[in-house]
Amino acid sequence: MTPRLTADFWVRAYLARLGLAGIPAYVTARGDATAGAVMVKLATLDGTAKAFQRSFDPASGARVWIVLAEGREADVDALVARQRGRDRDLWVIEIEDRAGRTLLDEDGLC
Asked: Helix H segments across 1-110?
């Protein structure tokens, strides 16, 4: 059995990886340090944004990142706020990158 990373450890490692790539990112909401879920908001600095959350691929059972919302940044922010209102253990990371880079497709981030 593979040991599970705590949410806090995963968030710190993800922020470090983003920092090494020169991608600005911030924790805008801290969740439960051990088992909180993580949502990633990508703001492309043109008034639009995307929100990503981890899910399971029904075909393979693998963990994958899916786009939960996409569009005007204000609309994505409203969705993030609703999710956070339902789940106080939810971590929210905000990335600001005009190129739309999240690195979520890289090894080790699912």
From this structure: 7-20, 73-86
Question: Do the strands 25-29 and 38-43 form a parallel or antiparallel pair, or are they unpaired?
Answer: unpaired
What does the alpha-carbon distance between residue 83 and residue 81 come to, in Å, rounded to a whole number? 5
pTM of the model: 0.91
Compare 1 and 26 and report the one with higher pLDDT.
Answer: 26
Instruction: Report the residue count for the chain.
Output: 110
CA-to-CA distance for 91 and 28, rounded, in angstroms? 8
Burial class of residue 54, CB neighbours in 10 A (0-12, 13-18, 19+): middle
Q: Which long-range contacts (CB under 8 A, 24 or more apart) does 58-65 make?
A: 62/110, 63/110, 64/110, 65/40, 65/102, 65/104, 65/105, 65/109, 65/110
In which residue are the tokens 């969705």 written? 79
